[in-house]
Amino acid sequence: MSYNPWLVALSVALAALDAYVAFSVVGRIARSRGPVAVLWTTFGALAMGSGVWAMHFIGMLALRVPVPLGYDSQDTALSSVPVMLATGATLWLLARRATHAGAMAAGVILGLGMISMHCLGVRALHMQPPVIWQAPWMAASLGLGLAGSTASIWLHSLIWRSDRSHRWWLRVLVALLLGGTAAGVHYLGMGGMRFAPGAVSLQAGVGLQGLGLGLAVSLVSGLLLLLTLGVSLAHRQLQRHTEAIARELGQARDALSWLAYHDELTALPNRANVLDLLDRLLPLAKNEQFEVAVMFVDLDGFKSINDTLGHDVGDEFLRSVADALRASVRSRDTVARFGGDEFVVVLERFRSEANLASICRKILSLVSRPVAVSGHSVSATPSIGVAVFPRDGEDAASLLRHADLAMYTAKEQGKAGYCFYQPRMSELARDRLLLSAELREALQREEVVVHYQPKVDLASRRVVGLEALVRWPHPARGLLLPKVFVPLAESSGLIGQLGQVVLRQVARQLAQWRARGLPLVPVAINVSLQEIQDGHFVAGLLGTLREFGLHHSLIEFEITESAAMKNAEHTLRQLRQLEALGFRMAIDDFGTGFSSLSHLRQLPTQSIKIDQSFVQGASRNPADRDITEAIIALARKLRLSTIAEGIETHAQADWLQEAGCEIGQGYLFVRPLPPEAVPAHLLRSATQPAASDAASG
Question: Does domain 271-421 sit in CATH 3.30.70.270?
Answer without folding.
Answer: yes
